[in-house]
Predict the structure.
Amino acid sequence: MGGTDGLVEFKTEDGAVVVVEGVDDESGARLVSRGDGPVQAARTFEGALDGVRAAAQSALRVFRDGPLQPDSVEIEFGVKLGAETGAILAKGSAEGHLVVKLSWSPGQESRAPSGPEAAGPS
């Protein structure tokens, strides 16, 4: 067997080629590569990531529009790419893996001096 086993080749919308380590599709269908080359994906790289983008947008909306009002939101999740299924959120050890980091800056308004006395002594 060659070193390209399990590789999936995606084309980007501008024609570049992205080769990634693929996963078996949930349907159990066997992916057959052309000779020794990687399997050709059924969609573009951008198309494969559409679902991931939608998941990220939904998660950000939940945290930004909720009552917590963080200054920044960082969301991290694993992604697996399959030739037919596109991108799927990767499963962690036993459950799905999702890391969310929220941060708040110290309140600037309450500490910021205002008015002419804010200039301090000359």
